[in-house]
Design goal:
Layout lengths: L1 E5 L2 H4 L11 E7 L2 E3 L5 E2 L1 H16 L7 E2 L6 E7 L2 E6 L5 E5 H21 L3 H18 L5
């Protein structure tokens, strides 16, 4: 399982009017299948926060809010089954079973990549916010460290 994030230079150079909504390529990839698409463009500073909240809730025994995207009607439902996380789409195109820790590690890596990109763009508050999400996920995985 991967969460791919990369810069679309054309969009970055257009200077978004709201820096929090800086578009980048972002998608899930599992066994060479992409969701929503390999060239999906969305707002990682927003959706990574949503995904972090959902993972935290799932790790606490809740139902999570799923893994949605701002652009389009794309959504993956997440549910925990022991040490596994099941991600599924309403249309049945996606049904992935992965280890919870694998998703958490990949989400942390994606948050770190996005944080670095925003930091390099001079968007320090967004970078800090993403770093706080990383800290909360790490604490959720290892509560004894808190």
């Amino acid at each position: 399982m991967k969460i791919n994030i990369s810069i679309n230079e054309e969009l970055i150079n257009q200077k978004a009017s709201n820096p929090q909504h800086t578009p980048m390529f972002i998608n899930f990839e599992h066994e060479s299948t992409f969701y929503p698409a390999s060239d999906w463009i969305d707002n990682p500073s927003v959706i990574l926060g949503w995904w972090t909240y959902s993972v935290e809730d799932l790790l606490s025994g809740g139902e999570g809010q799923g893994f949605s995207f701002m652009e389009g009607p794309f959504f993956l439902k997440g549910s925990v089954d022991g040490n596994d996380l099941i991600l599924s789409s309403e249309d049945g195109a996606v049904f992935w079973k992965i280890r919870v820790n694998e998703l958490v590690a990949e989400l942390i890596a994606a948050l770190n990549r996005a944080s670095r990109i925003f930091y390099e763009m001079g968007l320090i508050p967004i970078s800090r916010s993403l770093n706080e999400d990383v800290s909360r996920l790490k604490l959720k995985l290892n509560p004894a460290r808190g």
